[in-house]
Amino acid sequence: MLPFLAMMFIASIPVAMPSTFALSNSFEATKLSQEGVLTADLTGIQDAANLNLLLLDKTGTITENKTSVFKWYNLCQKADKEVLSYVSATLDEKNSGIIDDAIFTFLKQKNIKLIKADKYISFTSDKGYSQAQVGNLDLKLGSFKQLSQLDTTSIEKIGQISFENGRSVAFLINNKLAGIFILKDTIRPDAITTLQEIKNRGIKAIMLTGDNQKTAQSIAAQVGLQGKVISINNFTENLNIHELAGIADVLPEDKLFIVKLLQQKGFIVGMTGDGVNDAPALKQAEVGIAMHNATDIAKKSSKMVLLQDGLSPIIKILDAGHRVYHRMTTWSLTKLSRTAELTMLLTIGFICLNYIPMALNAMVIYTIMNNMVTMMIGTDNTYVSYHPENWDILKLAKRAFSLASGFMLSGLALLYFCTQKQIAPAKIGAIIYIYLVFSAMLLVLITRSKTYFWKSLPSKYVYITQLINIVITFTITAIGLGIQQLALSEIGLAILFSLLAAIIIDVIYKKITVKN
Protein backbone atom coordinates (compact mmCIF):
# COMPACT_ATOMS: atom_id res chain seq x y z
CA MET A 1 0.00 0.00 0.00
CA LEU A 2 2.85 2.40 0.84
CA PRO A 3 4.49 2.08 -2.62
CA PHE A 4 1.07 2.77 -4.18
CA LEU A 5 0.61 5.95 -2.12
CA ALA A 6 4.15 7.03 -2.98
CA MET A 7 3.45 6.56 -6.69
CA MET A 8 0.18 8.48 -6.44
CA PHE A 9 2.07 11.33 -4.79
CA ILE A 10 4.76 11.33 -7.50
CA ALA A 11 2.14 11.22 -10.27
CA SER A 12 0.44 14.30 -8.80
CA ILE A 13 3.62 16.45 -8.87
CA PRO A 14 3.58 18.84 -11.88
CA VAL A 15 7.06 17.77 -13.01
CA ALA A 16 6.60 18.98 -16.59
CA MET A 17 5.12 22.39 -15.71
CA PRO A 18 8.32 24.52 -15.74
CA SER A 19 9.55 22.81 -18.91
CA THR A 20 6.21 23.24 -20.67
CA PHE A 21 5.96 26.94 -19.76
CA ALA A 22 9.54 27.57 -20.88
CA LEU A 23 9.02 25.58 -24.09
CA SER A 24 5.86 27.49 -24.97
CA ASN A 25 7.50 30.89 -24.36
CA SER A 26 10.63 29.87 -26.30
CA PHE A 27 8.51 28.55 -29.16
CA GLU A 28 6.72 31.90 -29.42
CA ALA A 29 9.97 33.87 -29.00
CA THR A 30 11.38 32.07 -32.04
CA LYS A 31 8.24 32.87 -34.00
CA LEU A 32 8.32 36.53 -32.91
CA SER A 33 11.94 36.89 -34.03
CA GLN A 34 10.75 36.00 -37.54
CA GLU A 35 8.03 38.65 -37.27
CA GLY A 36 10.24 41.57 -36.23
CA VAL A 37 10.26 41.26 -32.44
CA LEU A 38 13.19 40.31 -30.20
CA THR A 39 12.27 38.77 -26.83
CA ALA A 40 14.66 39.88 -24.09
CA ASP A 41 12.63 38.33 -21.25
CA LEU A 42 10.36 35.32 -21.86
CA THR A 43 7.92 36.42 -19.14
CA GLY A 44 7.02 39.38 -21.36
CA ILE A 45 5.23 37.03 -23.75
CA GLN A 46 2.99 35.38 -21.17
CA ASP A 47 2.33 38.75 -19.46
CA ALA A 48 1.11 40.13 -22.80
CA ALA A 49 -1.97 37.88 -22.55
CA ASN A 50 -3.07 39.69 -19.36
CA LEU A 51 -2.30 43.19 -20.66
CA ASN A 52 -5.26 45.56 -20.29
CA LEU A 53 -3.60 48.98 -20.60
CA LEU A 54 -0.94 50.15 -23.04
CA LEU A 55 0.96 53.44 -22.68
CA LEU A 56 2.22 54.71 -26.02
CA ASP A 57 4.94 57.31 -26.36
CA LYS A 58 3.71 59.62 -29.13
CA THR A 59 7.00 60.46 -30.81
CA GLY A 60 8.56 57.45 -32.48
CA THR A 61 5.57 55.21 -31.78
CA ILE A 62 2.34 56.84 -32.93
CA THR A 63 4.23 59.34 -35.06
CA GLU A 64 7.41 58.87 -37.03
CA ASN A 65 10.59 59.83 -35.22
CA LYS A 66 10.94 63.04 -37.20
CA THR A 67 9.16 66.36 -37.33
CA SER A 68 9.07 69.52 -39.42
CA VAL A 69 8.27 73.19 -38.93
CA PHE A 70 4.62 73.73 -39.80
CA LYS A 71 4.54 77.47 -39.02
CA TRP A 72 6.85 80.20 -37.75
CA TYR A 73 5.46 83.27 -35.95
CA ASN A 74 7.71 86.33 -35.54
CA LEU A 75 6.48 88.14 -32.42
CA CYS A 76 9.09 90.92 -32.17
CA GLN A 77 10.08 94.05 -34.09
CA LYS A 78 13.19 92.51 -35.68
CA ALA A 79 13.18 91.16 -39.23
CA ASP A 80 12.52 87.44 -39.77
CA LYS A 81 16.00 86.67 -41.03
CA GLU A 82 17.68 88.39 -38.09
CA VAL A 83 15.52 86.58 -35.51
CA LEU A 84 16.01 83.22 -37.21
CA SER A 85 19.78 83.78 -37.27
CA TYR A 86 19.68 84.19 -33.51
CA VAL A 87 17.59 81.00 -33.28
CA SER A 88 20.41 79.07 -34.98
CA ALA A 89 22.71 79.89 -32.05
CA THR A 90 20.43 78.00 -29.64
CA LEU A 91 20.46 74.75 -31.66
CA ASP A 92 22.62 71.81 -30.61
CA GLU A 93 24.81 70.83 -33.57
CA LYS A 94 26.77 68.06 -31.81
CA ASN A 95 23.91 66.17 -30.13
CA SER A 96 20.93 67.34 -32.11
CA GLY A 97 17.46 66.03 -31.33
CA ILE A 98 14.45 65.88 -33.62
CA ILE A 99 13.46 69.47 -32.76
CA ASP A 100 16.97 70.76 -33.55
CA ASP A 101 16.95 68.85 -36.85
CA ALA A 102 13.52 70.20 -37.83
CA ILE A 103 14.49 73.83 -37.16
CA PHE A 104 17.91 73.40 -38.84
CA THR A 105 16.13 72.13 -41.96
CA PHE A 106 13.69 75.05 -41.84
CA LEU A 107 16.54 77.58 -41.53
CA LYS A 108 18.39 76.07 -44.48
CA GLN A 109 15.24 76.21 -46.61
CA LYS A 110 14.93 79.92 -45.74
CA ASN A 111 18.64 80.49 -46.50
CA ILE A 112 19.22 81.84 -43.02
CA LYS A 113 22.75 82.71 -42.00
CA LEU A 114 23.82 80.48 -39.09
CA ILE A 115 25.69 82.11 -36.24
CA LYS A 116 27.77 80.66 -33.41
CA ALA A 117 27.00 81.30 -29.78
CA ASP A 118 29.62 82.92 -27.55
CA LYS A 119 28.36 80.65 -24.79
CA TYR A 120 26.02 77.68 -25.12
CA ILE A 121 24.07 75.62 -22.53
CA SER A 122 22.34 72.57 -23.98
CA PHE A 123 18.73 71.55 -23.40
CA THR A 124 17.77 69.54 -20.31
CA SER A 125 14.33 68.17 -19.47
CA ASP A 126 14.51 69.81 -16.03
CA LYS A 127 14.56 73.37 -17.31
CA GLY A 128 12.93 72.65 -20.69
CA TYR A 129 15.08 74.83 -22.96
CA SER A 130 18.54 75.44 -24.43
CA GLN A 131 20.34 78.74 -23.88
CA ALA A 132 22.89 80.77 -25.83
CA GLN A 133 24.76 84.04 -25.38
CA VAL A 134 25.45 86.16 -28.48
CA GLY A 135 27.06 89.48 -27.60
CA ASN A 136 24.79 91.10 -25.02
CA LEU A 137 21.77 89.01 -26.03
CA ASP A 138 20.47 86.14 -23.91
CA LEU A 139 18.70 83.62 -26.17
CA LYS A 140 16.48 80.72 -25.12
CA LEU A 141 14.73 78.04 -27.20
CA GLY A 142 12.39 75.41 -25.76
CA SER A 143 9.00 74.55 -24.33
CA PHE A 144 6.47 77.35 -24.77
CA LYS A 145 4.76 76.32 -21.54
CA GLN A 146 7.92 76.85 -19.50
CA LEU A 147 9.43 79.80 -21.37
CA SER A 148 6.16 81.75 -21.40
CA GLN A 149 6.48 81.96 -17.61
CA LEU A 150 9.59 84.11 -18.07
CA ASP A 151 7.70 86.69 -20.13
CA THR A 152 4.53 87.87 -18.39
CA THR A 153 3.41 89.67 -21.57
CA SER A 154 3.53 86.51 -23.70
CA ILE A 155 -0.24 85.90 -23.50
CA GLU A 156 -0.87 89.25 -25.18
CA LYS A 157 1.52 88.40 -28.02
CA ILE A 158 0.27 84.96 -29.08
CA GLY A 159 -3.08 86.24 -30.39
CA GLN A 160 -4.76 83.73 -32.71
CA ILE A 161 -1.95 81.17 -32.87
CA SER A 162 -3.44 77.68 -33.34
CA PHE A 163 -1.50 75.57 -30.86
CA GLU A 164 -3.54 72.47 -31.70
CA ASN A 165 -1.78 72.30 -35.09
CA GLY A 166 1.39 70.92 -33.53
CA ARG A 167 4.08 71.15 -30.90
CA SER A 168 4.88 74.72 -29.79
CA VAL A 169 8.51 75.79 -29.36
CA ALA A 170 9.18 79.29 -28.05
CA PHE A 171 12.16 81.56 -28.73
CA LEU A 172 13.08 84.32 -26.25
CA ILE A 173 15.47 87.24 -26.60
CA ASN A 174 16.46 88.68 -23.23
CA ASN A 175 13.50 86.85 -21.66
CA LYS A 176 11.02 88.43 -24.06
CA LEU A 177 8.97 86.22 -26.38
CA ALA A 178 10.39 86.79 -29.88
CA GLY A 179 8.82 83.95 -31.83
CA ILE A 180 7.05 80.61 -31.83
CA PHE A 181 7.63 77.56 -34.00
CA ILE A 182 4.74 75.15 -34.54
CA LEU A 183 6.20 71.73 -35.29
CA LYS A 184 4.11 69.01 -36.85
CA ASP A 185 4.73 65.27 -36.56
CA THR A 186 3.99 62.72 -39.26
CA ILE A 187 1.62 60.01 -38.12
CA ARG A 188 2.84 56.50 -38.91
CA PRO A 189 0.92 54.79 -41.74
CA ASP A 190 0.04 51.81 -39.54
CA ALA A 191 -0.92 53.81 -36.42
CA ILE A 192 -4.68 54.08 -36.97
CA THR A 193 -5.26 50.43 -37.94
CA THR A 194 -2.98 49.09 -35.19
CA LEU A 195 -4.60 51.20 -32.47
CA GLN A 196 -7.99 49.92 -33.63
CA GLU A 197 -6.66 46.34 -33.39
CA ILE A 198 -5.44 47.03 -29.86
CA LYS A 199 -8.86 48.43 -28.94
CA ASN A 200 -10.57 45.36 -30.45
CA ARG A 201 -8.54 43.20 -28.05
CA GLY A 202 -10.05 44.98 -25.06
CA ILE A 203 -6.89 46.95 -24.26
CA LYS A 204 -7.06 50.61 -23.26
CA ALA A 205 -4.45 52.65 -25.16
CA ILE A 206 -3.25 55.98 -23.71
CA MET A 207 -0.86 58.33 -25.50
CA LEU A 208 1.95 60.02 -23.56
CA THR A 209 3.47 63.19 -24.97
CA GLY A 210 5.42 66.26 -23.98
CA ASP A 211 3.18 68.37 -26.24
CA ASN A 212 0.55 70.75 -24.89
CA GLN A 213 -3.03 69.56 -24.39
CA LYS A 214 -4.41 71.09 -27.58
CA THR A 215 -1.76 69.49 -29.76
CA ALA A 216 -2.10 66.15 -27.97
CA GLN A 217 -5.90 66.18 -28.32
CA SER A 218 -5.54 66.84 -32.05
CA ILE A 219 -3.12 63.92 -32.52
CA ALA A 220 -5.32 61.61 -30.42
CA ALA A 221 -8.35 62.46 -32.57
CA GLN A 222 -6.41 61.86 -35.79
CA VAL A 223 -5.41 58.31 -34.76
CA GLY A 224 -8.78 57.35 -33.30
CA LEU A 225 -7.98 57.48 -29.58
CA GLN A 226 -11.27 58.29 -27.87
CA GLY A 227 -11.55 60.30 -24.68
CA LYS A 228 -10.05 63.43 -23.21
CA VAL A 229 -6.43 64.49 -23.00
CA ILE A 230 -5.30 65.87 -19.65
CA SER A 231 -2.13 67.53 -18.45
CA ILE A 232 0.25 65.50 -16.28
CA ASN A 233 -0.47 68.09 -13.58
CA ASN A 234 -4.06 66.79 -13.39
CA PHE A 235 -3.14 63.10 -13.36
CA THR A 236 -4.27 61.78 -9.98
CA GLU A 237 -5.49 58.56 -8.38
CA ASN A 238 -9.14 59.55 -8.63
CA LEU A 239 -9.19 59.79 -12.42
CA ASN A 240 -11.33 57.44 -14.49
CA ILE A 241 -8.60 55.98 -16.68
CA HIS A 242 -11.09 54.62 -19.23
CA GLU A 243 -12.08 58.21 -20.10
CA LEU A 244 -8.52 59.17 -21.11
CA ALA A 245 -7.10 59.31 -24.62
CA GLY A 246 -3.78 60.81 -23.61
CA ILE A 247 -1.65 62.66 -21.09
CA ALA A 248 0.09 65.87 -22.21
CA ASP A 249 3.03 67.91 -20.85
CA VAL A 250 4.74 64.66 -19.85
CA LEU A 251 8.42 64.82 -18.97
CA PRO A 252 10.52 61.63 -19.26
CA GLU A 253 10.72 61.27 -15.49
CA ASP A 254 6.90 61.43 -15.23
CA LYS A 255 6.49 58.14 -17.06
CA LEU A 256 7.67 55.98 -14.15
CA PHE A 257 5.18 57.74 -11.87
CA ILE A 258 2.37 57.10 -14.38
CA VAL A 259 3.19 53.38 -14.70
CA LYS A 260 3.35 52.87 -10.92
CA LEU A 261 0.07 54.69 -10.29
CA LEU A 262 -1.73 52.65 -12.95
CA GLN A 263 -0.35 49.42 -11.49
CA GLN A 264 -1.61 50.47 -8.06
CA LYS A 265 -5.06 50.87 -9.61
CA GLY A 266 -4.92 47.21 -10.70
CA PHE A 267 -3.95 47.53 -14.35
CA ILE A 268 -1.52 45.20 -16.14
CA VAL A 269 0.55 47.83 -17.92
CA GLY A 270 2.40 47.76 -21.21
CA MET A 271 4.73 50.63 -22.11
CA THR A 272 6.52 51.70 -25.29
CA GLY A 273 9.59 53.93 -25.26
CA ASP A 274 12.88 54.69 -26.94
CA GLY A 275 14.89 57.11 -24.81
CA VAL A 276 17.37 56.82 -21.94
CA ASN A 277 14.87 58.46 -19.59
CA ASP A 278 12.20 55.92 -20.59
CA ALA A 279 14.25 53.04 -19.17
CA PRO A 280 12.88 53.09 -15.57
CA ALA A 281 9.26 53.08 -16.80
CA LEU A 282 9.99 50.33 -19.34
CA LYS A 283 11.52 48.19 -16.62
CA GLN A 284 8.61 48.83 -14.23
CA ALA A 285 5.89 47.91 -16.74
CA GLU A 286 4.74 44.29 -16.97
CA VAL A 287 5.41 44.44 -20.71
CA GLY A 288 8.09 47.00 -21.56
CA ILE A 289 8.48 47.42 -25.33
CA ALA A 290 11.51 49.23 -26.77
CA MET A 291 11.02 50.73 -30.21
CA HIS A 292 13.25 49.93 -33.17
CA ASN A 293 15.37 53.08 -32.80
CA ALA A 294 15.59 52.92 -28.98
CA THR A 295 18.78 53.57 -27.05
CA ASP A 296 20.73 50.60 -25.69
CA ILE A 297 19.67 51.30 -22.10
CA ALA A 298 15.99 51.40 -23.16
CA LYS A 299 16.37 48.06 -24.94
CA LYS A 300 18.10 46.47 -21.95
CA SER A 301 15.30 47.65 -19.67
CA SER A 302 12.56 46.18 -21.87
CA LYS A 303 11.18 42.66 -22.13
CA MET A 304 10.43 43.07 -25.84
CA VAL A 305 12.39 44.93 -28.52
CA LEU A 306 10.88 45.80 -31.90
CA LEU A 307 13.18 45.12 -34.85
CA GLN A 308 11.20 47.23 -37.30
CA ASP A 309 9.49 50.62 -37.29
CA GLY A 310 5.86 51.12 -36.43
CA LEU A 311 3.21 49.82 -34.09
CA SER A 312 2.08 46.70 -35.93
CA PRO A 313 4.61 44.30 -34.29
CA ILE A 314 2.86 44.99 -30.94
CA ILE A 315 -0.12 42.98 -32.24
CA LYS A 316 2.23 40.04 -32.80
CA ILE A 317 3.32 40.24 -29.15
CA LEU A 318 -0.30 40.24 -27.95
CA ASP A 319 -1.17 37.26 -30.16
CA ALA A 320 1.86 35.33 -28.90
CA GLY A 321 0.80 35.98 -25.31
CA HIS A 322 -2.70 34.62 -25.95
CA ARG A 323 -1.32 31.48 -27.58
CA VAL A 324 0.93 30.83 -24.58
CA TYR A 325 -1.99 31.41 -22.21
CA HIS A 326 -4.23 28.92 -24.01
CA ARG A 327 -1.49 26.29 -24.08
CA MET A 328 -0.95 26.72 -20.35
CA THR A 329 -4.70 26.47 -19.76
CA THR A 330 -4.71 23.21 -21.72
CA TRP A 331 -1.76 21.92 -19.70
CA SER A 332 -3.37 22.89 -16.37
CA LEU A 333 -6.74 21.35 -17.28
CA THR A 334 -5.04 18.18 -18.47
CA LYS A 335 -2.83 17.86 -15.39
CA LEU A 336 -5.66 18.45 -12.90
CA SER A 337 -8.01 16.10 -14.76
CA ARG A 338 -5.47 13.29 -15.17
CA THR A 339 -4.40 13.42 -11.52
CA ALA A 340 -8.00 13.40 -10.27
CA GLU A 341 -8.99 10.62 -12.69
CA LEU A 342 -6.04 8.41 -11.70
CA THR A 343 -6.59 8.97 -7.97
CA MET A 344 -10.35 8.35 -8.01
CA LEU A 345 -10.26 5.38 -10.38
CA LEU A 346 -7.53 3.45 -8.58
CA THR A 347 -8.80 4.31 -5.10
CA ILE A 348 -12.39 3.23 -5.83
CA GLY A 349 -11.06 0.19 -7.68
CA PHE A 350 -8.98 -0.76 -4.64
CA ILE A 351 -11.96 -0.35 -2.29
CA CYS A 352 -14.21 -2.49 -4.50
CA LEU A 353 -11.73 -5.19 -5.54
CA ASN A 354 -9.35 -5.34 -2.56
CA TYR A 355 -6.39 -4.96 -4.91
CA ILE A 356 -4.88 -2.07 -6.86
CA PRO A 357 -6.19 -2.44 -10.44
CA MET A 358 -2.88 -1.34 -11.97
CA ALA A 359 0.68 -2.52 -11.42
CA LEU A 360 3.19 -0.06 -9.92
CA ASN A 361 5.62 -0.42 -12.83
CA ALA A 362 2.72 0.39 -15.19
CA MET A 363 2.07 3.56 -13.16
CA VAL A 364 5.71 4.58 -13.59
CA ILE A 365 5.54 4.06 -17.38
CA TYR A 366 2.19 5.88 -17.52
CA THR A 367 3.58 8.92 -15.65
CA ILE A 368 6.68 9.20 -17.87
CA MET A 369 4.78 8.81 -21.13
CA ASN A 370 2.11 11.34 -20.20
CA ASN A 371 4.71 13.94 -19.22
CA MET A 372 6.23 13.52 -22.70
CA VAL A 373 2.89 14.40 -24.32
CA THR A 374 1.98 17.27 -21.99
CA MET A 375 5.37 18.92 -22.53
CA MET A 376 4.61 19.13 -26.25
CA ILE A 377 1.48 21.17 -25.48
CA GLY A 378 3.93 24.08 -25.38
CA THR A 379 4.20 23.84 -29.20
CA ASP A 380 0.53 23.21 -29.97
CA ASN A 381 -1.67 24.98 -32.50
CA THR A 382 -4.12 27.23 -30.71
CA TYR A 383 -6.26 30.34 -31.12
CA VAL A 384 -6.08 34.03 -30.19
CA SER A 385 -8.57 35.65 -27.81
CA TYR A 386 -9.77 39.22 -28.23
CA HIS A 387 -9.83 40.17 -24.57
CA PRO A 388 -7.27 40.34 -21.73
CA GLU A 389 -6.88 36.95 -20.07
CA ASN A 390 -7.40 36.30 -16.40
CA TRP A 391 -6.68 33.06 -14.55
CA ASP A 392 -9.97 31.85 -13.06
CA ILE A 393 -8.76 29.01 -10.82
CA LEU A 394 -12.25 28.05 -9.61
CA LYS A 395 -13.57 27.80 -13.17
CA LEU A 396 -10.51 25.78 -14.18
CA ALA A 397 -10.95 23.40 -11.24
CA LYS A 398 -14.65 22.86 -12.03
CA ARG A 399 -13.90 21.98 -15.64
CA ALA A 400 -11.05 19.69 -14.63
CA PHE A 401 -13.27 17.88 -12.11
CA SER A 402 -16.05 17.40 -14.69
CA LEU A 403 -13.60 15.87 -17.17
CA ALA A 404 -11.97 13.71 -14.49
CA SER A 405 -15.38 12.48 -13.33
CA GLY A 406 -16.37 11.52 -16.87
CA PHE A 407 -13.21 9.52 -17.50
CA MET A 408 -13.30 8.04 -13.99
CA LEU A 409 -16.87 6.75 -14.48
CA SER A 410 -15.90 5.34 -17.88
CA GLY A 411 -12.89 3.64 -16.28
CA LEU A 412 -15.07 2.14 -13.56
CA ALA A 413 -17.44 0.83 -16.24
CA LEU A 414 -14.49 -0.82 -18.00
CA LEU A 415 -13.29 -2.22 -14.68
CA TYR A 416 -16.75 -3.64 -13.96
CA PHE A 417 -16.91 -5.21 -17.43
CA CYS A 418 -13.52 -6.88 -16.94
CA THR A 419 -14.45 -8.32 -13.53
CA GLN A 420 -17.77 -9.60 -14.86
CA LYS A 421 -15.88 -11.41 -17.63
CA GLN A 422 -13.62 -12.84 -14.88
CA ILE A 423 -10.47 -11.51 -16.48
CA ALA A 424 -7.36 -12.11 -14.37
CA PRO A 425 -6.30 -9.17 -12.12
CA ALA A 426 -2.92 -8.88 -13.89
CA LYS A 427 -4.65 -8.52 -17.26
CA ILE A 428 -7.15 -6.04 -15.79
CA GLY A 429 -4.17 -3.94 -14.66
CA ALA A 430 -2.77 -3.94 -18.22
CA ILE A 431 -6.17 -3.03 -19.72
CA ILE A 432 -6.61 -0.17 -17.23
CA TYR A 433 -3.07 0.97 -18.09
CA ILE A 434 -4.01 1.19 -21.79
CA TYR A 435 -7.23 3.00 -20.91
CA LEU A 436 -5.40 5.57 -18.76
CA VAL A 437 -2.72 6.21 -21.39
CA PHE A 438 -5.24 6.72 -24.19
CA SER A 439 -7.71 8.70 -22.08
CA ALA A 440 -4.85 11.04 -21.08
CA MET A 441 -3.88 11.62 -24.72
CA LEU A 442 -7.51 12.13 -25.72
CA LEU A 443 -7.92 14.51 -22.78
CA VAL A 444 -5.21 16.73 -24.28
CA LEU A 445 -7.12 16.79 -27.58
CA ILE A 446 -10.40 17.63 -25.82
CA THR A 447 -9.05 20.52 -23.73
CA ARG A 448 -6.92 22.12 -26.46
CA SER A 449 -9.79 23.09 -28.76
CA LYS A 450 -13.11 24.92 -28.64
CA THR A 451 -14.54 22.47 -31.14
CA TYR A 452 -14.79 18.67 -30.99
CA PHE A 453 -11.35 17.06 -30.80
CA TRP A 454 -11.73 15.18 -34.10
CA LYS A 455 -12.26 18.49 -35.94
CA SER A 456 -9.05 20.20 -34.81
CA LEU A 457 -5.55 18.94 -35.53
CA PRO A 458 -2.77 19.42 -32.95
CA SER A 459 0.74 20.57 -33.85
CA LYS A 460 3.06 18.07 -35.49
CA TYR A 461 5.07 17.79 -32.26
CA VAL A 462 1.99 16.82 -30.22
CA TYR A 463 0.86 14.47 -32.98
CA ILE A 464 4.26 12.75 -33.28
CA THR A 465 4.66 12.40 -29.49
CA GLN A 466 1.21 10.86 -29.20
CA LEU A 467 2.01 8.50 -32.07
CA ILE A 468 5.19 7.41 -30.26
CA ASN A 469 3.11 6.87 -27.11
CA ILE A 470 0.66 4.67 -29.03
CA VAL A 471 3.46 2.57 -30.53
CA ILE A 472 5.19 2.10 -27.16
CA THR A 473 1.92 1.24 -25.37
CA PHE A 474 0.91 -1.25 -28.06
CA THR A 475 4.36 -2.86 -28.14
CA ILE A 476 4.91 -3.36 -24.39
CA THR A 477 1.40 -4.76 -23.84
CA ALA A 478 1.58 -6.99 -26.93
CA ILE A 479 4.91 -8.58 -25.92
CA GLY A 480 4.49 -8.21 -22.15
CA LEU A 481 7.49 -5.95 -21.55
CA GLY A 482 7.34 -4.81 -17.91
CA ILE A 483 3.60 -5.37 -17.87
CA GLN A 484 1.14 -8.25 -18.29
CA GLN A 485 0.92 -9.43 -21.91
CA LEU A 486 -2.43 -8.95 -23.65
CA ALA A 487 -3.98 -10.44 -26.76
CA LEU A 488 -4.42 -8.11 -29.73
CA SER A 489 -8.20 -8.30 -29.29
CA GLU A 490 -7.88 -7.17 -25.66
CA ILE A 491 -5.62 -4.28 -26.63
CA GLY A 492 -8.04 -3.25 -29.38
CA LEU A 493 -10.99 -3.43 -26.97
CA ALA A 494 -9.27 -1.13 -24.45
CA ILE A 495 -8.35 1.39 -27.17
CA LEU A 496 -11.83 1.34 -28.72
CA PHE A 497 -13.49 1.80 -25.33
CA SER A 498 -11.19 4.78 -24.57
CA LEU A 499 -12.07 6.40 -27.90
CA LEU A 500 -15.83 5.94 -27.50
CA ALA A 501 -15.70 7.27 -23.94
CA ALA A 502 -13.73 10.35 -25.11
CA ILE A 503 -16.25 11.11 -27.88
CA ILE A 504 -19.19 11.00 -25.45
CA ILE A 505 -17.33 13.05 -22.81
CA ASP A 506 -16.23 15.65 -25.38
CA VAL A 507 -19.77 16.17 -26.70
CA ILE A 508 -21.13 16.68 -23.17
CA TYR A 509 -18.15 18.82 -22.07
CA LYS A 510 -18.37 21.17 -25.07
CA LYS A 511 -22.11 21.67 -24.55
CA ILE A 512 -21.50 22.58 -20.90
CA THR A 513 -18.55 24.92 -21.59
CA VAL A 514 -20.36 26.74 -24.42
CA LYS A 515 -23.23 27.55 -22.02
CA ASN A 516 -20.81 28.74 -19.34
TrEMBL record:
Protein origin, superkingdom: Bacteria
Primary localization: membrane
Membrane topology: Multi-pass membrane protein
Subcellular location: Membrane
PROSITE patterns for this protein: ATPASE_E1_E2
NCBIfam families: ATPase_P-type
UniProt name for this protein: Haloacid dehalogenase-like hydrolase
Provenance organism: Lactobacillus iners LactinV 01V1-a
